[in-house]
Amino acid sequence: MVSDGYRFRFADSALDALMADVPSVFLTGPRGCGKTTTGMRHVDRSVSLDVPGMAAAAQADPDLFLDRQQRPLFIDEWQEAPAVLGAVKRIVDSDPSAGQFLITGSVRSELGSGVWPGTGRLVRVAMAPMSQREILGFSGELSSLFLHRFFMSGELPTEGTELTSVDYVDAATQGGFPEAVRMNSQRVRRAWLESYSEQLLARDIADLGESVDSIRLLQYVEVLSLNTAGVLAQSSLAQMAGISVITSERYDKLLAEVGIVGNLQPWGRNRVSRIEKRPKRFLTDTGVALAAAGIDRDSVMVDGNLLGRVLEGLVFMQLRAEVLAAEVSLRIFHLRTLNGRQEVDFVVEGPGGGILGIEVKASTQVTSRDARHLEWMKREFPREWRAGVVLHAGHDAYRLAEGIWALPIASLWSP
After folding, report:
1. In 15, 90, 125, 394, which residue has its Cα 20 to 30 A from 337's Cα atom?
2. CA angle, corner 320, sides to 246 and 150, nearest 5?
């Protein structure tokens, strides 16, 4: 749903609830994902610490600075005056009244930053780039979302769609950053996405106090983009990027901290004896991933392997956005045995440990053979198993087997 030009975000529901119940909330997410716009809809009064004079005043005497501000207060770009977090801590320690501060800024990890006093005092809300449901219109009811509907009531949408694989690839090349979504010109959007990754890496990684070879880092991002949805050894990624394994591991950590990378850990670590322990690698926004790799729609449509990776990346964006905003306990994994004989693209674990297995296929028609890994999972884990879904690029929804459905990819964002 759009109100005054604003598209409601999944995070709005969490912010409404938390600001009514806790003294301070920390809104995180990659630069440009909409944190400031969303935050300012929940708090009228704001200070932006990327204004030099404002940052200097806040850093020089943060307690006095905050004492002069009316509350509730929205504090943007906190990392420009990190001492302000200590002042927030002192205020909420002495007065735990709800809804005093909403803070956003750099996604710098609190671990090891040397400035983080927020543990136990700042409740984190994570934002992702916009999902298709948010882009097309979200009513604000999390219970209407795909994963929430399934785990709360057992419902799966069974409507068809008119969308085609070209529509899905267009959605992937657009991505979910609000600025890119607003652009009508594909050429202008592509230029914005290309510059976004360069500027993000230069600015946010500098905020982390890290010195890196920007050219090599961009090369590494390109390698990750080309291998999205892949389960690769660290040494392979490093070799393709022309860097050492140690450097690639350092880059992984930095990219995760600035919100570009969102890898999936394996499910079943303690349940399957011969399980692949390596993460499945994704960039958190398909638009940035494709732009970083220099890939356009036409290139995707003539490469079946690439099409499958792009569609899986698009599905990951939708699932991750829901998981981050969930009202119930939701976690997302992948599953692959060491011999590769069984592989499930996504395993979503819900309340009580129940699981929904999800496979993604680029074809327009799927058969029971496409569900064979889900059938294996159903037999192997009967206590955890709830249902399986094969998401495809076709139009129709239909049952493949007991508890396993073929659904169009658009089912993830259908009302």
Report:
1. 394
2. 145
